Amino acid sequence: MRRFAALAVLASLLMVGCGQLPGSTAPGSAAPGATATGSTPPVATQPDDADPEPSESADAELEAFLAAITGHTPTDPEALVAAVESAGFPRSSIERTREVDSLGAPVTFLQIAVLTSDGCIIGQVGDGEPIAVRASALGGGRCLVGEIVGLD
């Protein structure tokens, strides 16, 4: 009986620990103020003091970016960069992650971003449909975190 009670207490503690951390977003949801496009509709949660919806030109940029990354894979990052550049984004504003991980294995997903006048457009290609989101720029005017591949 004691063993059963101990297991019940342990199970209860595990269930409580599975909750969402304060300030985090649920998987598949966008951070407050982020605009997403792709196969999943964006989560429309903005605080009262949030910036207004992106302009039509910002929406057009997001759609052009998504169209540019559609059909690309992490295995050919230069073609991905060239497609984003062909969509009208300056090469100097494009960032991307590496196509291999720290152990030298090919990555499942590759992120690519472009800094615009309205912030960043961040995209991801890999398994499944590509996605693109609009987000604020990071400090220093970057869009991606971590080791970023330098473009010529």
Model description:
The chain has helices at residues 2-17, 56-69, 77-86, and strands spanning 35-37, 94-96, 109-116, 119-126, 131-135. Residues 1-35 and 39-52 have low confidence and may be disordered. The protein has 152 residues and is an alpha+beta fold. The protein is globular and about 40 Å long. Strand 4 (119-126) and strand 5 (131-135) form a beta hairpin.
The best one-word shape is: globular
- The amount of helix comes to 25-40%
Biggest β-sheet description: 5 strands, antiparallel
What structural category arises from helix and sheet content?
alpha+beta
How are helices and strands ordered from N to C?
HEHHEEEE
Strand content: 15-25%
Number of separate helices: 3
What tags apply to this protein structure?
alpha+beta, 3 helices, 5 strands, globular, disordered N terminus
Summarize the entry for a quick read.
This protein has 152 residues and is an alpha+beta fold. It has helices at 2-17, 56-69, 77-86, and strands at residues 35-37, 94-96, 109-116, 119-126, 131-135.
